């Protein structure tokens, strides 16, 4: 009888301790299990992608805080609504400053219209439009005002000896250089390098085509990020070469791949802080060989090693270097057939 | 003595057991609570949770905005007539870029249904995936153009009419699918390389029969336009063959669905001479004085007939001849 009692006593002592220990183990492991599940779920969202109905489950899932490190969250939730105004401004997202040089020609309004239609989808976007003109034209002024975008309208006229003669493509004279430099100067005059305003600078020409994913890719730029561009350099696409460690080590181009930065203007984005900390960095105006424009700025800002590859390690095309045909206006004749007061 | 000792031991054990049990219960209750996370909190995590909160806040804000905006400006979505946009498309290098930027414009237009008709014997994954991701309401059709009607490499673009079978297929689908719907809806033919402002869709939305407006950069001119006198279209301002019944571009008119359904034989005639394609459809639907002028009595240009250059591929061709072409698995 005492033996049984003793055994009972021992069991009664040991049992709660074992339970406690197992429970303690569980509580340590449970968050880890939850993280793994969540990571899978989040990845699943990235792969399956967004539909017209907002994926609200993504929000619900994250309601519990788990202790975790290295979470790879990309939540792009598109809710089912239609708007012709830009998305509400966020205090947390870095602002994307888009620098677009433009000049008057028949397709200008069309190009800027469809560019604006694209930009209206991007949150925290600031459009810096720089006209190549003596003064700001009413066409562009009106267009910018009507879009409702957050914008800055600048202008600087390229002196005639720098301009293209007629409309022939002369690669020795880089177009839009003075306009881009003016925008850089405006940024440096407007933003304080010590302020915490996060920003990304991107040079977007008015005839290219941009996917919405591109802007989200560039938002996480720390110094300079790069990605492939379609239809440049006489190829289907040009792309940086990325090694297994995720670092850029070269350029996959045919046209002069030994340039310091063999990349198109649409293929990189720069963190605003870098622009502000290196106030001497501008695009070189004179004596720049064809294709070296981008290098003339980038080599003053960053080295090859610092480049951040985006777009799935530079394997996806998110921007296309489209060019719009010059419209045939033969029927206008010498005096102009159509009413010049109608704006096109 | 021993009994007392035993008793004491027993109480000790019992006490011990009770304490352990209480500790266990406490631990179990702790498990159900939220983790404090202060020891594990890295700045990155803090940023992530901040961003996530911001995201949820923005979403709530958007939903609120949408709820308050609707009674103000627009009537509830269901009462806006749907605009069916028929876009013929074909595979070429710039196809994905064109459809991408087109979808970005259409995403701003409420009650728009995009009917994409591929010139292909089957639906291509490129277009299917693009449509799926676009967020638009869409219908994905396809019909191949007969070989003798197709433009060959090196043919000038005006030699044969393009997109005829595809637009007719779009009309056929509408007639099949939309017989018993609310017939206030509108049909618009939008080519994939043009540029559309958002206003043009609002102009065409209340089309009763056929509405018309100017088109920029077409017909060899800055714009082509109907001429409106006394609120009616009397003639057309165009520099090329103004004697056509309807000397307009495809992008310059919209047809009400009612009219399309009431005239089941009306379609585009591929045999029509160059420039008469639009007329081949419209002459079976409407007369000149029934046209409804839009865009401020046809004085504003809200759509442009832009065309995208064919990208130069000579280096690509040279590389491919050497077997070093760019990775075809990368979709452009």
Automatic annotation (TrEMBL), chain B:
<dbReference type="GO" id="GO:0000139">
    <property type="term" value="C:Golgi membrane"/>
</dbReference>
<keyword id="KW-1015">Disulfide bond</keyword>
<keyword id="KW-0472">Membrane</keyword>
<keyword id="KW-1133">Transmembrane helix</keyword>
<feature type="binding site">
    <location>
        <position position="193"/>
    </location>
    <ligand>
        <name>Mn(2+)</name>
    </ligand>
</feature>
<feature type="region of interest" description="Disordered">
    <location>
        <begin position="311"/>
        <end position="332"/>
    </location>
</feature>
<dbReference type="GO" id="GO:0005975">
    <property type="term" value="P:carbohydrate metabolic process"/>
</dbReference>
<feature type="binding site">
    <location>
        <begin position="88"/>
        <end position="90"/>
    </location>
    <ligand>
        <name>UDP-alpha-D-glucuronate</name>
    </ligand>
</feature>
<feature type="binding site">
    <location>
        <position position="167"/>
    </location>
    <ligand>
        <name>UDP-alpha-D-glucuronate</name>
    </ligand>
</feature>
<keyword id="KW-0808">Transferase</keyword>
<dbReference type="GO" id="GO:0015018">
    <property type="term" value="F:galactosylgalactosylxylosylprotein 3-beta-glucuronosyltransferase activity"/>
</dbReference>
<dbReference type="GO" id="GO:0046872">
    <property type="term" value="F:metal ion binding"/>
</dbReference>
<feature type="binding site">
    <location>
        <position position="119"/>
    </location>
    <ligand>
        <name>UDP-alpha-D-glucuronate</name>
    </ligand>
</feature>
<comment type="similarity">
    <text>Belongs to the glycosyltransferase 43 family.</text>
</comment>
<keyword id="KW-0479">Metal-binding</keyword>
<keyword id="KW-0464">Manganese</keyword>
<dbReference type="InterPro" id="IPR005027">
    <property type="entry name" value="Glyco_trans_43"/>
</dbReference>
<feature type="binding site">
    <location>
        <position position="162"/>
    </location>
    <ligand>
        <name>UDP-alpha-D-glucuronate</name>
    </ligand>
</feature>
<feature type="binding site">
    <location>
        <begin position="191"/>
        <end position="193"/>
    </location>
    <ligand>
        <name>UDP-alpha-D-glucuronate</name>
    </ligand>
</feature>
<feature type="binding site">
    <location>
        <begin position="305"/>
        <end position="307"/>
    </location>
    <ligand>
        <name>UDP-alpha-D-glucuronate</name>
    </ligand>
</feature>
<keyword id="KW-0812">Transmembrane</keyword>
<feature type="site" description="Interaction with galactose moiety of substrate glycoprotein">
    <location>
        <position position="224"/>
    </location>
</feature>
<keyword id="KW-0325">Glycoprotein</keyword>
<feature type="transmembrane region" description="Helical">
    <location>
        <begin position="12"/>
        <end position="29"/>
    </location>
</feature>
<dbReference type="Pfam" id="PF03360">
    <property type="entry name" value="Glyco_transf_43"/>
</dbReference>
<keyword id="KW-0735">Signal-anchor</keyword>
<dbReference type="GO" id="GO:0030198">
    <property type="term" value="P:extracellular matrix organization"/>
</dbReference>
<dbReference type="GO" id="GO:0015012">
    <property type="term" value="P:heparan sulfate proteoglycan biosynthetic process"/>
</dbReference>
<dbReference type="GO" id="GO:0051216">
    <property type="term" value="P:cartilage development"/>
</dbReference>
<keyword id="KW-0333">Golgi apparatus</keyword>
<protein>
    <recommendedName>
        <fullName>Galactosylgalactosylxylosylprotein 3-beta-glucuronosyltransferase</fullName>
        <ecNumber>2.4.1.135</ecNumber>
    </recommendedName>
</protein>
<dbReference type="InterPro" id="IPR029044">
    <property type="entry name" value="Nucleotide-diphossugar_trans"/>
</dbReference>
<feature type="active site" description="Proton donor/acceptor">
    <location>
        <position position="278"/>
    </location>
</feature>
<comment type="pathway">
    <text>Protein modification; protein glycosylation.</text>
</comment>
<dbReference type="GO" id="GO:0050650">
    <property type="term" value="P:chondroitin sulfate proteoglycan biosynthetic process"/>
</dbReference>
